[in-house]
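Much of our argument rests on the idea that a fold can be written as discrete symbols. Part of our work consisted of pairing the sequence of a single chain with a tokenised description of its backbone. The amino acid sequence and the backbone structure tokens for this protein are reproduced below.
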Amino acid sequence: MRGERPTLDTVAQTAGVSKATVSKVLNGRGDVAAATRARVQEAIGALGYVPSTGRRVHDTTPTVTVLFDAFVNLYSSQVLSGVVSAGLEQGVDVVVTHLAGSGALTPEWFRGLSAKGHLGLIVVTTEVSPSEVRACADAGLGLVAVDPVSIDPSTTDRLVSVSATNWSGGLQATEHLLGLGHRRIGFAGGLPASRPAQQRLHGHLAALSSAGLPASADDDLVLQVGFSHEDGQAMAARLLDLPSPPTAIVAGCDASALGVMEEARRRGLRLPDDLSIVGFDDTYAAAWTSPQLTTVRQPMREMGRVALRTLLGLARGQRPETHHFELATTLVERSSTAPLG
């Protein structure tokens, strides 16, 4: 009858499911198929149903999960800062976890997030396999990847990613050093399996090629070991041990650039007189080093903000403007680079 308050029976009939299934959805149970859950939620919304007891619909703060491969780096803290600030603006709570020992990315884990009422998941610098993308979707969760390690071709239309213009950044870093007169330029990058690392390397090689210099990933001046401080120090040692060492080094990130600087100082080199160094990220530490680090700025906070806003759009059923957002990089010149003497 018109004007009557909708009941659990009404919702069940409208959605074409049992009352027990409606109760499971209302109580955030994970043992309901994503398509069925969506049908029930649509019926609840259309009817304006409000349960008289138990968990109520839409009376809790929306929540998203952010998953990191590791917390202990400045890059992660700045991306998270952007996610949290966007969450505060949108009235969304942010729950943070990391990959090690969390049981993350299993079908059970995704279903657990769904049962808690989470809207979706933001993964940062974490590889997500096609089966994990499917499991996330099956649990009814949205998924956005920030700086994904790799993107499987089979997930191109289902995984939304946010990153910076890594190729352009690698190009900018090396063009800067070329403009200062350097011709033997080392590259201390991340692992070959890392998509951002490869994009930065290819930008570096493109700059060398445009300048008429040898440009090959197999060159002795190109190393691809990792993004940590220790990796940077190890790569610098190998580069500086060459019979004809580089006069400048492009590092894959700020953390590895700091490792390059430490190894150079350990050898008694003067920075930047004996060795110019360029980083990538523009984390807080870049301006705290001595000399201050010239680096390629990627807008990490804005990347986090875009990821959060995009995830909320997915949760509302909106199609993303693109499946791959790329935010512009800019070179920040400080005092770790100087003209070739």
